[in-house]
Amino acid sequence: MKKRKTPSKMRKGIYILPNLFTTGNLFCGFWAIISVFQEKFFYAAAAILLACVFDMLDGKVARLSGATSKFGVQYDSLADLVSFGIAPALLAFSWALRPYGKFGWLAAFLFVVCGALRLARFNVQSSSGETKYFKGLPIPAAASMIALTILLYLRLIEMDWVKDVVILVMIYVLAFLMVSNIRYFSFKELDLAKRKPFSIFIFVILSMIVIVMEPVIVLFCFILAYVFSGPVKMVWAWRKKRAFRKMEPVPEEDLVIRG
Predict the structure, then answer these.
(1) Does pLDDT of 111 surpass 50?
(2) Residue 166: phi, psi to the nearest 5?
(3) Contact assessment for residue 37 and residue 93, using Cβ atoms and an 8 Å cutoff
(4) What is the pTM of this model?
(5) Contact residues for 61 (Cβ-Cβ < 8 A; gap 6+)
(6) Which helix (H) or strand (E) holds 167?
(7) Are 116 and 61 in contact (CB under 8 A)?
(8) Are 30 and 91 in contact (CB under 8 A)?
(9) Mean pLDDT of 67-89
(10) Of all helices (H) and strands (E), which one includes residue 179?
(11) Which one of 118, 127, 209, 219 is most buried, by most CB atoms within 10 A?
């Protein structure tokens, strides 16, 4: 009589394709760190942005092919911590925060810690089934904000003192947003493989053309709008809720007491 296979034996092995994209993400993060040590800040920022592309692809491929696994989730988080936590923190410190001494590297370390906490919280809460929104700013968006700010500076600006102040303030703000409870749109439900209105197709084409014309400026504007979208939406919802409360009728018991 043949022995029945246990679930643990049937589930041995890993999914190759999505984990290859995750490895590409990790490689780009390591490349960014090496570029920082060599003071090649342009390549370091570009490597972080390329890591974002791999990070989007590995999740998309895993969901489309049904190749999601606990191993892939943990591996992806470790790669994200390197590419979007350690790499941008080292880049920000070496490029702008070094003159601040202890305060500079502590700010960079705070970014890494908040990024790690953001990833850990995401892994714990991912089983809740919420797909439309993220709680807290995603760490790839925070890393992209730092990388695109540096690329924009190298493209347009020439004042050294500006970069020091801007990066110092930015890294504290991004660290706070990552561990906050502010909700950000996840784009997971935006499935372009399904039928969409013709206007959306035109918008996507126009966006691609504009990005190709001025990639750094346009991408910087996109990521800046995304970073601010969470706080703006939170304030808008708070004001709307406050206005609704003012419009609620006063109970008759309160009117009698006040009278």
Answers:
(1) yes
(2) -60, -45
(3) no
(4) 0.82
(5) 17, 18, 21, 67
(6) helix 160-179
(7) no
(8) no
(9) 90
(10) helix 160-179
(11) 118
The amino acid occupying position 179 is V
Q: Using an 8 Å Cβ cutoff, are 178 and 139 in contact? A: yes
Distance in angstroms (rounded) separating the CA atoms of residues 52 and 204: 19
Residue found under tokens 């009117």:
255
Q: How confident is the model at residue 10 (pLDDT cuts 50, 70, 90)?
A: very low
Instruction: Report angle CA 192, 61, 46 to the nearest 5 degrees.
Output: 85
Contact predicate 149/101, CB 8 Å: no
Selected residue with higher pLDDT from 15 and 27: 27
The domain spans of the chain are: 15-228
* Residue pointed to by tokens 């346009």: 218
Fold classification of 15-228 (topology level): Four Helix Bundle (Hemerythrin (Met), subunit A) (1.20.120)
Q: In this predicted model, which residue has the larger pLDDT, 91 or 122?
A: 91
Answer whether 111's CB lies under 8 Å from 174's CB.
Answer: yes
